[in-house]
Amino acid sequence: KIPNYPMQADRLTNSECKLIPKLLSIMKSKQTNLCLSADYTSFEAIEKICHQVGNYICALKVHHDIIEDFSAEKGLMLKELSEKYQFLVVEDRKFADIGNTVKEQYAGKFKVSDWADIVTVHGIAGSGTVEGLKTALPEEMLQERAVLLIAEMSSDGSLAVGDYSKGVLEIAEKFPDFVMGFVCQSRIGSDKFLRWMPGIHLAAEGDSLGQKYKLPEAAVAQGADILIVGRCIINADDPVAVVKECQKRGYAAWDAFGY
Ligand code: BMP
């Protein structure tokens, strides 16, 4: 049964977070809801995969602190690549500290706020974390930046469940102009937000360290708008072929659900 979710058109026109309509139009025009989790340890590998698959993804997620040769300048190079191929850049920093500390971290040594369209944030410290990130941005950049709140996690035994997850949704409601949505495992929260779902693989059920996987179709059925896929792609013999398969299957499922 197909649930009666509001059509994309509602979110295109009514979103307070201006990156939501921007992302939805990228998704529609490129026919993709795939976010590549480019968890490479060299910047060269990230540049290479951008050129190879930039046309098939709507977002590229990095962990800048695993890239051995990363610098603020490399961040700006990534931003240029994202403009060339039209995708958003996500830094999966999972900011979790008090407002004043994350404010310094966001604009700090690696200038994450200069090159990442989106950053991920934990709710553990309360709404001051999101507020701190917001205050790091100059007024004119506020509409060009957004956060994803980690509401649920894909890993075995995650503590982000129940009342904790509900608390994260409440934080989101306080900052509808800055919160794009959630990293989650279900269609949690209000439909004005987008749900980004990791823990997706075409062939594995998990890894040896607690990660749990599902297929793209199952992720969409669980409520995903955007599919975050990492090692299934980056460890494949032919990453481009796997990206194309994830793009095709993920977008077909999402479109059919009418999210
Ligand atoms: P992989 O598909 O290779 O398992 O990678 C998943 C990516 O998504 C990793 O970068 C991880 O940090 C991130 N992630 C996750 O796996 N589960 C979550 O709940 C939240 C995440 O950010």
UniProtKB/TrEMBL annotation:
Positions of the catalytic residues: 92 (for ompdecase activity), 94 (for ompdecase activity), 97 (for ompdecase activity)
Source domain of life: Eukaryota
Functional pathway: Pyrimidine metabolism; UMP biosynthesis via de novo pathway; UMP from orotate: step 2/2; Pyrimidine metabolism; UMP biosynthesis via de novo pathway; UMP from orotate: step 1/2
Positions annotated to bind substrate: 39, 61, 154, 211, 230-231
Domain Orotidine 5'-phosphate decarboxylase: 33-246
Keywords: Decarboxylase, Glycosyltransferase, Lyase, Multifunctional enzyme, Pyrimidine biosynthesis, Transferase
One of the GO BP terms on file: 'de novo' UMP biosynthetic process
Keyword Glycosyltransferase: yes
One Gene Ontology MF term: orotidine-5'-phosphate decarboxylase activity
Enzyme nomenclature, EC number: 2.4.2.10, 4.1.1.23
Record family assignment: In the N-terminal section; belongs to the purine/pyrimidine phosphoribosyltransferase family. In the C-terminal section; belongs to the OMP decarboxylase family.
Name by which UniProt lists this protein: Uridine 5'-monophosphate synthase
Origin species: Notodromas monacha
Residues of the full protein shown: 207 to 465 of 465
